[in-house]
Design brief:
CATH topology of the largest domain in chain B: D-Maltodextrin-Binding Protein, domain 2
Order of helices and strands of chain C: HHEEHHHHHHHHHHH
Strand content of chain C: under 5%
Structural class of chain B: alpha/beta
CATH class of the largest domain in chain B: Alpha Beta
Largest interface: A-C, 127 and 133 residues
Oligomer: heterotrimer
Structural class of chain C: mainly alpha
Chains: A mainly alpha (289), B alpha/beta (426), C mainly alpha (335)
Radius of gyration of chain C: 24 Å
Helix content of chain C: 55-70%
Number of strands of chain C: 2
Number of helices of chain B: 19
Number of domains of chain C: 1
Number of strands of chain B: 8
CATH architecture of chain C: Orthogonal Bundle
Chain lengths: 289, 426, 335
């Protein structure tokens, strides 16, 4: 009889649900601690000196060397330059992904045209391929067109990722009623008008999700930039960050300060926009119902 | 984050502007083709050259050439290979190549200029012959200008030696640790007197040096695999002995940093190890000394400067590198960044003969100088480092999971043979 | 490695009408143009083709073409600078006889199992818990998702420091309790455990959000009915929640298989500061994943043909595993 106690405490008001609710909260808080702890510990390490970290047992409290460590990071790598590069790449990628994917997704979701199945099926198969399969030829391709070392070499391959199409097609299929499109068509709206005036405004939550997803992906991408960005002036943040950690003797507090500086902007951006982001992820389901 | 269409449009416009900007910046470099360019770029990695000397070079050549230098991180070799393969204007005019990688670039020597054509032949006698030779193709094309070398030595904690009742004077320690066996015997005594300490950080470092002490490596000049022969087996056994005697600290991660000031009584390594030790264990200042490597000197690392074929002004580029790497400037680099010169003339210069406070005032050039000149000449095949990798990996297998040394040897040899075949070695 | 995680809604759709057979084929929406005369030339669809063309152009150039070019490379010997030389099936023969390749496959599979099982199970439990609370829901969601926003590089550096044998926090805590230091980063098994933990930490919150979306779509009437039938919470979970969620679970399993098998940056960054073992996956090559081995062969040993062969063989493996997983979950559905 306690079915709802776990899944729907709202309904279980009749039973004594306080202790159960507390237990649930306790477990969730524990999970939160685990997921947030690394950030706290990173701050601890970033505010101490490397000597403190190498001590055993290591120092567990916040220290006062944060500024010094940050200065070391700034001296060692071109932090702001690489961050600017990352921001540019992430923004360009995100906007292009949104545009290209939503347009294609709309066509796939609401129209039947010859070859639709095969075209879509191809995407499905390719999503299972390890990306690394394409790395070598992509690199050779980049050298042929002379893009090696340039930031645009990061943007285009990121656009060939089919995830956004899957995601948006799904959302449009359920979230944009056919009746609306029919009505618009009777009013004389063509394909692109339907896309721009009807579909786009209705799929904002899904677009937000995709936007953050694409942005985070571009921000954190590491392997491809590592390979293709040969020009030291055009390196992204992740590549610079990994460079801090190379070498026999590592200045850990500095590395950790770098980790902190590279992660914080994204965590802040995410926290600020998270409402829309998570709404996008969950509303998709709700709207479909 | 709610995306409105207007926001979307604005973002798109901003993006277009930003990408236009990026592209514009990206295309800024000078086009190749001409051979008297005024702007030259130079690639190296952090610590490969003295930043001070490079800065001086920029001012020295200012009137004729604008030299831009870039410190490249990550896998330098991978970056360079891919950039060379890509070609075009992104190829640097001058680039460093690490000592362990130079051999793998030799088969593609046509991607580089022959420095002998530019005048290296006249000054080559200033540089150690064995080092120069490693950057030379079989038909005599010189692609690399030696920057530095890594003569090895035995670093040891004089205070701990003293505590254990052993001699702590460099000359005496060198005499006591003349061969690997002597050295391990010394280690056994140390361990007895100071429980919890270790002589070597891992087997890989012993193996690496022991191989470098010979004149043959893994592949011979006729492109045959010889990694299964006695000279490699002997080096392997030397490494295993340290392990069997319990002198191996089995350190294969960053723990080295915290161990070097505490549980490690000695450290085998090239001259540049001094810097690593100093920054990892500043508290031990004055307690360390250096003496000759047991079993004779070897080389670890040491790099080259090269001029890729695309170089926009070979004449001037060569002048720049020969200026940066002149014996005088090499001595400066040593003072500034502990870069051990490949030019023997530098060893007598005051910049190098001074006492080193970290080593209790010892004149360490007296150890490294003779070592540098006595390093055996060996042939390093292009696939050498790829073929060596399984040996190193198997040694860590012994340390990490207690794999039987004989099994590890067998596996290492069979893997090395396979890699050799893959790389076209017979 | 982040290949595109295919997320919820594709699966969410499936149970819109409550529990029902999972259909992985897209629902056929009546085409908007259905009212018009049915038979039309291909050209009359030019707007749709125009709409999908930007993506397909990019896709063809940057994914489709490169993938097949890499197949071509797998039959060559190519050092990246010199000329290509056709060697037939030799690279695959080398691969078959290369113990390191098989070791890397084993490592990859072990790491994958060690990370995927706890990740998905933990995500499902957390999603259920989160679904049942009312307060702080937004906070929990954000706090639990945040690990996925951080970069692998940052996380790997962090884990390397915390699990360091000598100065790591974990060993320090164990020391306080009186346990000897554990060689996290040198024991072959523990290396895999650390990498798996790292991946689990990053992906649990992500999968949780997907499950949560699925849970929210389950109509309450289903639970009402179960309650009336007298089912307890555990029973409800296994008899109702899990079956309804099966399409989503299947989906996350497939995605985790694709992602989890592609671990590369984790071991690479974790052991980057180890000069002797750089890019070899740590002591005993215990953290050498297949993709790391690919990177090493292609980009460090300059053996691009062999590298291509490694990834293609690996792709076959992924397909096999995805199919097996799919089968298992599907069979579970029938029983």
């Amino acid at each position: 009889m306690t079915a709802t106690a776990t899944t729907r405490p709202v309904k279980g008001a009749r039973r004594p649900r306080r202790p159960k609710g507390l237990g649930t909260h306790a477990l969730l808080v524990l999970a939160v601690v685990i997921s947030v702890f690394p950030f706290v510990w990173t701050i601890v390490m970033a505010t101490n000196t490397t000597r403190d970290i190498y001590q055993s047992p290591p120092k567990l409290t916040f220290g006062s060397h944060l500024l010094e460590n940050i200065r070391n990071v700034l001296d060692t790598i071109d932090f702001f330059g690489s961050m600017l590069n990352t921001v540019v790449v992430a923004c360009v990628t995100t906007v292009l992904v949104l545009f290209v994917d939503s347009l294609a997704a709309f066509a796939f979701a609401k129209f039947d045209f010859p070859g639709r199945k095969i075209l879509f099926g191809t995407l499905l198969v390719f999503m299972m391929l390890p990306l690394q399969l394409a790395v070598l030829p992509q690199f050779i391709l980049m050298s042929e067109v002379g893009w090696v070392g340039m930031l645009k070499a990061l943007v285009w391959p990121a656009l060939s990722n089919a995830f956004g199409i899957f995601w948006l097609r799904q959302y449009i299929e359920n979230g944009v009623p056919d009746e609306l499109l029919d009505a618009a068509r009777i009013d004389g709206a063509g394909f692109f008008r339907q896309y721009w005036n009807i579909a786009l405004p209705m799929i904002r939550p899904a677009m937000s999700f995709l936007a953050i997803y694409a942005f985070v992906g571009a921000w954190n991408d590491y392997v491809w930039p590592l390979i293709v960005l040969t020009n030291p002036d055009h390196v992204t943040l992740q590549v610079e960050l990994a460079q801090l950690n190379v070498g026999h003797n590592t200045d850990y507090s500095m590395v950790m300060a770098g980790v902190l500086m590279a992660s914080l902007p994204l965590v802040i951006v995410f926290s600020v926009f998270a409402r829309g982001f998570i709404a996008g992820a969950t509303e998709g389901a709700v709207q479909g119902t | 984050m709610d995306l409105s269409r207007r926001g979307f449009l604005q973002a798109a416009v901003f993006t277009a502007a930003a990408s236009g900007l990026t592209v514009a910046c990206g295309g800024g470099s000078e086009s190749g083709g001409t051979k008297n360019g005024k702007n030259l770029t130079m690639w190296y990695w952090g610590g490969a050259l003295s930043d001070k000397v490079v800065a001086e070079a920029k001012t020295h050549f200012k009137s004729r050439i604008k030299l831009t230098s870039a410190s490249i991180g990550g896998d330098f070799k991978q970056k360079l290979t891919t950039t060379l393969a890509a070609g075009g204007s992104s190829v640097p005019d001058i680039t460093g190549i690490k000592g362990e990688d130079i051999a793998s670039f030799l088969p593609n020597a046509d991607r580089f200029l022959d420095l002998n054509d530019l005048g290296f032949k006249k000054i080559s006698s200033q540089y150690l012959e064995w080092k120069t030779k490693l950057a030379q193709t079989k038909d005599g094309k010189q692609i690399g200008f030696p920057i530095d070398i890594g003569p090895t030595a035995l670093f040891y904690r004089a205070d701990l030696f003293d505590k254990a009742g052993l001699p702590d004077d460099p000359a005496k320690v060198a005499a006591e640790a003349k061969t690997w066996d002597d050295y391990f015997a010394l280690g056994t005594e140390l361990k007895k007197a100071l429980p919890g300490t270790f002589l070597v950080n891992n087997m890989g470092s012993v193996f690496n040096i022991a191989v470098g002490q010979g004149t043959k490596r893994f592949i011979d000049e006729d492109n045959h695999f010889i990694g299964d022969q006695d000279h490699i087996r002997a080096a392997w056994n030397t490494a295993i002995r340290a392990y069997r005697l319990g002198l191996d600290a089995k350190i294969n991660d960053q723990s080295w940093n915290s161990a070097v000031g505490k549980s490690l009584t000695t450290e085998l390594g090239a001259a540049w190890h001094a810097l690593d030790i100093e920054s990892a264990a500043p508290d031990t200042k004055g307690k360390w000394r250096v003496c000759a490597t047991p079993g004779g000197p070897a080389n670890q690392g040491g790099s080259y400067l090269t001029l890729p074929k695309q170089c926009r002004n070979p004449e001037e580029a060569f002048k720049i590198i020969s200026w940066i790497l002149s014996p005088d400037n090499n001595a400066k680099s040593f003072t500034d960044a502990a870069i051990f010169p490949a030019s023997a003339a530098s060893y007598a210069m005051p910049a190098m003969t001074g006492p080193d406070a970290f080593f209790g005032g010892q004149k360490i050039i007296e150890v490294f100088g003779p070592a540098a000149e006595a390093i055996p000449v060996s042939y390093e095949a292009p696939a050498d480092s790829a073929v060596m990798a399984p040996f190193m990996a198997e040694l860590t297998s012994i340390e990490a999971k207690g794999k039987k040394p004989d099994d590890a040897w067998k596996d290492a040899v069979s893997q090395a043979k396979q890699i050799a075949r893959r790389q076209g070695v017979s | 490695m982040s290949s595109p995680p295919v997320t919820g809604p594709a699966a969410v759709r499936e149970h819109r009408g409550g529990p029902g057979p999972a259909r992985f084929r897209p629902r056929r929406t009546p085409p908007a143009g259905a009212a018009r005369p049915a038979r039309r030339g291909v050209l009359s669809y030019w707007r749709q083709y125009l709409a999908i063309s930007p993506f397909y152009l990019i896709f063809t150039v940057f994914s489709f073409g490169p993938v097949f070019y890499s197949l071509y490379l797998a039959f060559q010997r190519y050092d990246g600078l010199g000329t290509k030389q056709f060697v037939g099936l030799q690279q695959f023969e080398f691969l078959w006889n290369d113990p390191v390749f098989w070791l890397s496959i084993r490592n990859t599979l072990v790491i994958w199992v060690l990370s995927t099982v706890p990740t998905l199970f933990g995500a499902l439990v957390l999603a259920t818990l989160l679904h049942s609370v009312r307060r702080f829901k937004g906070f929990y969601r954000i706090a639990l998702y945040v690990p996925n926003v951080t970069s692998i590089v940052a996380v790997a550096i962090f884990f390397g420091a915390v699990f360091s044998n000598d100065f790591g926090l974990v060993n320090a805590i164990l020391g306080v309790v009186g346990i000897d230091p554990v060689p996290w980063l040198s024991d072959p098994w523990l290396i895999k455990v650390v990498i798996a933990l790292l991946m689990a930490w990053m992906w649990t919150g992500y999968n949780m959000i997907i499950y949560l979306a699925g849970l929210q779509a389950i109509p309450q009437s289903v639970y009402e009915a179960a309650r009336i039938d007298g089912a307890g919470p555990v029973r409800t979970f296994f008899r109702i929640t899990i079956p309804i969620m099966r399409p989503i679970i299947l989906f996350t399993v497939v995605v985790s298989t694709i992602n989890g098998l592609q671990s590369f940056s984790e071991p690479q960054v974790l052991f980057a500061s180890n000069a002797a073992n750089q890019n070899l996956g740590g002591p005993g090559q215990a953290g050498l994943t297949t993709l790391l081995y690919f990177y090493q062969s292609a980009f460090l040993d300059n053996d691009y043909g062999y590298g291509a062969a490694i990834v293609w063989a690996f792709f076959v493996l992924i397909i096999v595993l995805v199919v097996i997983n799919w089968r298992i979950v599907q069979r579970g559905r029938k029983s």
